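We emphasize that the prediction below concerns an isolated chain of 51 residues; any contacts that depend on oligomerization or on bound cofactors are therefore not represented. The input was used exactly as deposited, without trimming of termini.
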Amino acid sequence: MEFYLSVLNDKVRLSHENEAIGIIICKAKDRTIVEYSIRSYCRAQKRLKKN
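Result of the prediction step, given as a token string:
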């Protein structure tokens, strides 16, 4: 999903729009996977803010 979001943000997103986020809806809740996904996203955001 990270690849698709990167392409969407770089090639499709307009300058006045916020960055795209990915949401995966699952029938069974797996909190561990959700938490890791959120942590990865937050780390990426921190790196972007430093630059």
